[in-house]
Amino acid sequence: MVVIISMILLGIVAGYFLRRRKLRYLDNIVMGIIWLLLFLLGVEAGSDERIVRWIASLGMEAFTISLGGVAGSSVLSLILWRFTSKNGCGKGDRR
After folding, report:
1. What is the pLDDT of residues 27-51, one digit of tens each?
2. What DSSP line would sit under the chain, residue for residue?
3. pTM of the model
């Protein structure tokens, strides 16, 4: 837990000192890392026999709940992104 909090604080400090620089590819790098982490999470879940058996036994109910969670998170993230971009806190704002 200390490592996680330390990394977050280190990122905040780095962001503070780099805030005036134009970091053109940072959004793409962050998105790529998120996709990689999601893929690795899927690999980890797929390699665990207990999880695979559990998912198979739950069937359509688990799939529907998971799909609803992913869809809801995606929609709300898009709404938040558009809201913050319109208010000057989004992608192009480098104060």
Report:
1. 899 899 999 999 999 899 889 888 8
2. -HHHHHHHHHHHHHHHHTTTS--TTHHHHHHHHHHHHHHHHHHHHHH-HHHHHHHHHHTHHHHHHHHHHHHHHHHHHHHHHHHHHHTT-STT---
3. 0.50
